[in-house]
Amino acid sequence: MEIEHSDLRPLHDLWRLKKDAAGGVPGRNDFDVFELRPWLGHLTIIEVIDGGKDFLYRLHGTEVVSVVGEDRTGRLVGSLSPPELVAHLFDHFRT
Known about the structure:
Number of strands: 2
Number of helices: 4
Shape: globular
Distance between the termini: 19 Å
Low-confidence stretches: none
Strand content: 5-15%
Mean pLDDT: 93
């Protein structure tokens, strides 16, 4: 995959490096927060709860908040509304 946006290429390269080192999808502990600093406002970090029964927003970056219209940091997907949004997010995150 070629990332065309010049600001995102370094993030994609970092992700691939961590992915290769982890042998799969890297976990939160694979990243140092200082490595992610340039992109934190644009990131959402989701924690899988109970094997995918729910998901917790660990970080909902400020730029994401400005697009979505609310800060979901610390909230469970299952606590959101409307139900159609919850169903969509569950499908998306489980995939």
